[in-house]
Specification:
This protein has 369 residues and is α+β, with helices and mostly antiparallel strands. Helix content is 43%, strand content 16%.
Length: 369
C-alpha cells in the first residue's frame, strides 16, 4: 500500500479532531490521542479546547476532578492526562522497561533497585487512603532514617525518584489544593482503576491506539514516543507481531511504516488538504511522531519548535505540515512562518478565533512576523 505524506497528514488532522472540530470532550480527546501532555496544565487545556468547536478551557481539570482522567508521569517521563484504562496499559509498559535499574539512572539519582522497591512500598503505605502534597509526603518519608540521604531527590520538582513509582501504579497526581499539587494512589483516587495489565497484553493495546491516532509509524517512532527507545527491539517486535492482521504495511514516499488495518482504506482514499490550523504548545500532533520527523518538521526549523529546557512551541500547520510558530501578546496573535510560507489569511484569522476561545480571551488580531 502506497500513500503520500499529504494523505497521511490530512488523515491525521481528521483523526485527531483538528480538521473536523466537533463535540469531543477532554476524555474523548485524551482517549483518541493516547493522552495529552500535561507538563504545563494550560497546554493540555489548549490542546483539548482547540479540538472542540465551541468549548472554553477547563475541560481537562474538570475531567481530572471527576476521576474520568488521571494525571501522572507517563510517556518519556513527562506528565500526561489520560483515561484510566489507557494509563494503566501505558504504565505497565513503562514499568516493564525498568529504567531505574540501569547504571546511568542509578548514577544520576543515587537510588539502587532495592531502594526503589522499598520506596514504592513505603510511599504506598504513606498514601493509603490519603492525598498528600509533595512536602507532606517527603516529611513523612524522612521520619524513616532510610530515606535521609535521598531527601533532596525526593523533594525535587523534577520528580525523578517518584517517576518509577508512578510507572508502577503506586502514585499519581491527586486533587489540587489551590495551586498545590497532591499525590494519591490511583486505586484510591479512581473508582474504576483496573490495575496494571501484563505487559505482553498491554503492548499490542497501546501500539494499536498509537497507530489509530498517529500512524502510519515505524517501530522506532513508536518506541521513541513511548520511552525514548528504552525497550528491547525484540520486545517491541513481539508487540507488532501480536497485532497480526490488524497491521498493514505502508510505503509513505519511500518510508516503510505501519498503519492499523481498520484505517487502511480510509487512509488510502484520503484527499490531501490545503487547510490551515493552529495548535498549542506541547501538542501530541508533533510529540507523537517526534520532533526528529523531518517529513513533518524540516530539520532546519527544529530549533524554533523544540526549544530550551524542553519547551515545545505552538504550531502553525499548512497542509498538515509544520510551517511556523505563533505566540499571543496582549490581544495580538503573531505568526512566525518558515521559508516564506503564506497561508490563507482568512483561514488564519478563523483559526485565531478558536485560539482566543481556547485561551479564554475575547478576541485576537493576527499579525505575520
Amino acid at each position: 500500500m502506497r500513500v503520500s505524506w499529504d494523505q497521511v497528514f490530512a488523515w491525521r488532522l481528521r483523526r485527531q479532531f483538528v480538521a473536523l472540530r466537533g463535540d469531543a470532550d477532554a476524555v474523548a480527546v485524551a482517549d483518541r490521542l493516547c493522552g495529552v501532555q500535561a507538563q504545563v496544565a494550560s497546554a493540555a487545556e489548549t490542546a483539548v479546547a482547540l479540538r472542540h468547536s465551541s468549548a472554553a478551557p477547563g475541560g481537562v481539570a474538570a475531567a481530572l476532578g471527576a476521576g474520568r482522567l488521571v494525571k501522572t508521569w507517563a510517556m518519556r517521563g513527562t506528565l500526561h492526562a489520560m483515561t484510566p484504562p489507557f494509563a494503566a496499559a501505558a504504565l505497565s509498559l513503562l514499568a516493564s522497561a525498568r529504567t531505574w535499574e540501569k547504571p546511568s539512572w542509578q548514577k544520576n539519582f543515587g537510588a539502587s533497585p532495592a531502594e526503589v522497591a522499598a520506596l514504592a512500598d513505603a510511599v504506598g503505605a504513606v498514601l493509603d487512603g490519603r492525598a498528600l502534597s509533595r512536602a507532606e509526603l517527603v516529611a513523612e518519608l524522612l521520619a524513616d532514617p532510610r530515606w535521609h540521604r535521598l531527601g533532596a531527590e525526593l523533594g525535587s520538582g523534577w520528580g525523578a525518584l517518584l517517576k518509577p513509582l508512578a510507572w508502577q501504579g503506586v502514585l499519581c497526581h491527586g486533587p489540587l489544593r489551590g495551586t498545590t499539587v497532591t499525590f494519591a494512589r490511583p486505586a484510591d483516587l479512581l473508582p474504576d482503576w483496573p490495575g496494571l495489565p501484563d505487559p505482553a497484553d498491554a503492548g499490542p493495546r497501546v501500539l494499536a491506539a498509537y497507530l489509530r491516532a498517529h500512524g502510519p509509524a515505524t517501530e522506532d517512532a513508536f518506541t521513541a514516543w513511548l520511552a525514548r527507545g528504552a525497550h528491547p527491539k525484540k520486545t517491541v517486535r513481539q508487540w507488532f507481531s501480536a497485532l497480526g492482521p490488524d497491521l498493514t504495511e505502508v510505503d509513505v514516499e519511500g518510508r516503510r511504516a505501519w498503519c492499523h488495518t481498520a484505517d487502511a482504506d480510509t487512509l488510502a482514499t484520503t484527499t490531501p488538504t490545503d487547510s490551515v490550523h493552529l495548535l498549542g504548545p506541547f501538542d501530541q500532533y508533533l510529540l507523537a511522531p517526534g520532533t526528529a520527523d523531518t517529513a513533518l518538521l524540516p530539520a532546519a526549523h527544529r530549533p524554533a519548535i523544540s526549544r530550551t529546557a524542553g519547551w515545545i512551541s505552538p504550531l502553525v500547520l499548512v497542509r498538515g505540515r509544520i510551517a511556523g510558530t505563533w505566540e499571543v501578546t496582549d490581544t495580538t496573535l503573531t505568526a512566525t512562518l518558515f521559508d516564506g510560507a503564506r497561508p490563507d489569511q482568512d483561514a488564519l484569522r478563523e483559526e485565531a478565533t478558536h485560539v482566543a476561545r481556547a485561551l479564554g480571551v475575547p478576541s485576537l488580531t493576527v499579525k505575520i512576523a
